[in-house]
């Protein structure tokens, strides 16, 4: 699907305006009009991003948030920190200020 980036941009702007209007008059997150406008905005953004890339080999610096996977992205990163030892903090620094520490530094 080779769409003109200018017309895809116009459709994206219109979708942003529809989303704004739906958000401004929304009765909550589960409002059907807001959900439809959100889906339309996502579709219009994807079309614009694809058209821009097809025409100029350039992508937008944006990522569409998909609420279904929001916890999956963070679960993968948790494994990177499993080996950190939080309880036996041996970094050489004291965690709390004490009166002893204040005596080491003159005050004015």
UniProtKB/TrEMBL annotation:
Chain residue ranges for the region called Disordered: 66-108
Protein name, per record: DNA primase
Protein species of origin: Brachybacterium endophyticum
